[in-house]
Amino acid sequence: MSVITRELLEALDTNIRVTWQKRFEAAPTADLWKKIAMPINSKSLSEKYSFLGTVPGLREFKSERIPGTLSGFNYEISNKKWESTLDVDRDVIEDDNTGQIMLAVTGLATKAAKHYTVLTAKAFDLADSTLIYDGQNFFDVDHTTGSNYLGTAKDLNATNVAAAELLLNKQVDDRGEYLGYMGTAIICGPELAAAANKLVNSKTINDGGIAVDNPNYQRYEVVVLPHLGTSKKWAVADLSQGLLPFIVQIRIAISLLAKTDLNSDRAFDKDIFTWGTRARHNVGYGNHQLIVGAVSS
Predict the structure, then answer these.
(1) What's the longest Cα–Cα distance across the chain?
(2) Which helix (H) or strand (E) element contains residue 83?
(3) Rg (Cα) of the chain, in Å, rounded?
């Protein structure tokens, strides 16, 4: 049995922080969001983004420059505050059950590390019903620069991927010039992962009973968002342009805090010491022209 002292709590806190940090850095799928979302450092309660499609390309220099300007369309992402809290009963520490504490800390760190990926998956899932820069949903047929929504009842197969690719190729800037985007990734959840992998990893496909070369063989990276669950939404995206379809806006990075003062009211009245995470961030939408969405039947 351990006697609770300031020194013991300091040592326990150090052990917890080391355990938390190691797991936070090693948690599976923790960095998956980086494949489809841009990290943006925030300096205020919210950030405004102007329509990205108005950035000008090169043109012949004639009598004078023709400047491009950011569109009057604005899109604002407000930061949210996030927390997760672990209460540790004094008895657990006195009885030297640090193994139980570390298991709980590992779980705390794993969920914290995956949070950006979880929010990015939710944004993907809600993309066909969430308004962005131009007053249209992120996935929508009515964008003035070209539709980026294939529609519903569109199974993830070669025909529909080709149709999505065509919509991606048809994206234009505000002057009507084609942007030349081409798909590099298929994004989906676990429900459609097998179909996506078959589409990309099979060397041949069946065409009227005849095996022919698969035109999509190793053409796309398959990005599976595990937190989409049973969602049947999928997309073809060009992830090679420097910009990405989604934004992870970070005001205060996820960190671990502790309340281990022996003289605190909580420690005295309830025999509880507390560790927890705190962060301020949110996820939103980037360049909609880089991605074409669909829903499988």
Answers:
(1) 85
(2) strand 80-89
(3) 24
Considering only CA atoms, which of 56, 60, 59, 58 is closest in space to residue 69? 56
Which tokens sit at 111?
């969920």
- Dist CA 226 CA 279 (whole Å): 23
Main-chain dihedrals φ then ψ at residue 104, nearest 5 degrees: -65, -40
Non-local (6+) Cβ contacts of 207 within 8 A are none
Provide the 8-state DSSP code for 171: -
pTM: 0.90
The tens digit of pLDDT for each residue in 165-209 reads 999 999 998 788 899 999 999 999 999 999 999 999 999 988 778
Looking up tokens 């309830």, which residue turns up?
270
Cα angle 169, 54, 178; round to 5: 25
Give 76-132 pLDDT, tens digit per residue: 899 999 999 999 999 999 998 889 999 999 999 999 999 999 999 999 999 999 999
**Across the strands, what pairs with 246?**
37, 285
